[in-house]
Amino acid sequence: MDTNTALAVAKYDAHADKFAERALTLCMQPQLEEFSRLTTPGALVLDAGCGSGKDFGPLGLCGFRAIGVDLSRGLLAHAGEVPGALLARADIGRLPFPDAAFDGVWACSSLVHFDMLGAGRVLRELRRALKPWGSLYASVKFGDDTGEWTDSEVVGRRWFQLWLTVPVVSVHPFRLIPYTGSGVSVHPSRGFPYTWQMGPA
Length: 201
Ligand SMILES: C[S@@+](CC[C@H](N)C(=O)[O-])C[C@H]1O[C@@H](n2cnc3c(N)ncnc32)[C@H](O)[C@@H]1O
Fold this sequence. Notes:
Layout: H1 3-14, H2 16-23, H3 29-38, E1 44-48, H4 56-61, E2 65-70, H5 73-79, E3 86-89, E4 102-107, H6 116-129, E5 130-142, E6 146-150, E7 157-163, H7 165-171, E8 175-177, E9 193-199
Parallel strand pairs: 1-2, 1-4, 2-3, 4-5, 5-7
Antiparallel strand pairs: 5-9, 6-7, 8-9
The structure holds S-adenosylmethionine (SAM).
């Protein structure tokens, strides 16, 4: 785990209850619908950086079997309260799973604390764990900067990598599938989520 990730995970641990509460206010329906279009029902999906497990229920409603991985003990404790949750405490850059174990990977806001090189390594690891025609959903923050910012008074200051589409495409091992859903806006300013969908190369 690199220093920025360690600091971020420490913040999640320290504010786990509040972060879990806030996560429940986020609606991922448009993104889930898009992911479902590319991932067959019954698929085994890795929730990479699952946090408090807010997406386990919605992924299950889409017909997927989800396994969550995270490094924050505090957030994993919340995720463990979701009925039927399957969890592992692990680094998404070193997954404890064999090659081609998953049909899909759902990485909601979990790449945000990696710099470009680190995120490239994680994306390669996620592809290793994916079946050849598996799909990946990943969301990051839009921009061309890095630094420590407050995204919420609740959770406090954390280091973020902001991303532009071009560097993302140049480092990731996936083919970019343009996002076609409605309900997700791309804002060219710091702090808003930039969401895209990637399929196999
Ligand atoms: C912004 S939160 C998103 C959590 C969850 N996906 C959600 O949407 O509510 C980022 C999550 O990534 C996790 N995380 C960050 N770096 C990680 C790593 N290297 N391995 C596993 N989890 C990591 C954090 O602990 C945190 O739970």
